[in-house]
């Protein structure tokens, strides 16, 4: 193994370990020493590869969000002949898998970041959240029309994404209130169906009721 391969392996282990430790303890309580210990790396490795704890956190967050975005494209499962209803379900399902489907640590990190944003948050919004906004608004316009009032589109889009975030941010409560609620693939599919049905009702109210928020 070359030195470059060894360094790349160390970097990847640090990112994996950082995700676990930051998810378990939060940014402030997480320590570089514990991250390096889990990664099997020297404590100086974080400074060498990332320049410090803050940059490690930002790099880790961007890395895993990029991986999840590539793994779960928001339009996966749809095509030119897909109906608006099919596109809505696909968007919701892929969003749920993107923020919760790969591992619990990733879901915790996303939830933590939305509640207590880090210095990396603005970059995260620009790189990963704005494309989500564009995708969901495009789906909503398939129902309301391309010339629908911006406020109506925003209200529907926020309602759709907000339901997904509700399941993410309130996981510990929901699992205790509803013992049959699961966050495995089958459970996420059921959430997607529920959010889609509820959202269709809301979109219909905007579509046929008229008016703006």
UniProtKB/TrEMBL annotation:
Listed InterPro entries: DNA-bd_HTH_TetR-type_CS (IPR023772), Homeodomain-like_sf (IPR009057), HTH-type_TetR-like_transc_reg (IPR050109), HTH_TetR (IPR001647), Tet_transcr_reg_TetR-rel_C_sf (IPR036271), Tscrpt_reg_YbiH_C (IPR015292)
Keyword DNA-binding: yes
Keywords associated with the record: DNA-binding
SUPFAM superfamilies hit by this protein: Homeodomain-like (SSF46689), Tetracyclin repressor-like, C-terminal domain (SSF48498)
Entry keyword annotation includes DNA-binding: yes
Record Gene3D superfamilies: Homeodomain-like, Tetracycline Repressor, domain 2
Domain named HTH tetR-type: residues: 8-68
Entry's Gene Ontology molecular function annotations: DNA-binding transcription factor activity; transcription cis-regulatory region binding
Residue ranges of DNA binding: 31-50
Pfam families recorded: CecR_C (PF09209), TetR_N (PF00440)
Name of the molecule in the record: Transcriptional regulator, TetR family
